[in-house]
Design goal:
Length: about 120
């Protein structure tokens, strides 16, 4: 069964950058579409970025376009989320679930990791 481990979170000052990693085991990650979802404190989980399992195309939630960049390293079975110019609103737990479908629908993502916490604060 596919297992996902998110890493790379931490405390960062506003304006800083982070690269989050989503490493997979038990399956080949490029067979799956990957979404990055954020759950801010006291709020519902929301999708912010998605990468296709067919052609590597990406999609971003409007508020993060230009700040967030997705990429795959198939040799490492890992997907990355580069986040630049961080703001306090980017604070939350970031998850990288996998789906057989390239979709923004949370319900389509069947494999979830434990998440990695990003805190943006001065």
């Amino acid at each position: 069964q596919l297992q996902l481990v998110e890493s790379g979170g931490g405390l960062v000052q506003p304006g800083g950058s982070l690269r989050l990693s989503c490493a997979a085991s038990g399956g080949t990650l490029d067979h799956y579409a990957i979404g990055w979802f954020r759950q801010a404190p006291g709020k519902e989980r929301e999708g912010v970025s998605w990468i296709s399992n067919s052609d590597g195309s990406t999609d971003y939630e409007d508020a993060v376009k230009g700040r967030f960049t997705l990429s795959r390293d198939n040799a490492k079975n890992t997907v990355y989320l580069q986040i630049n110019s961080l703001l306090s609103v980017h604070t939350g737990v970031y998850y990288c679930p996998a789906s057989w479908l390239f979709t923004v629908l949370t319900s389509a993502y069947n494999y979830w990791g434990q998440g990695t916490m990003v805190t943006v604060s001065s």
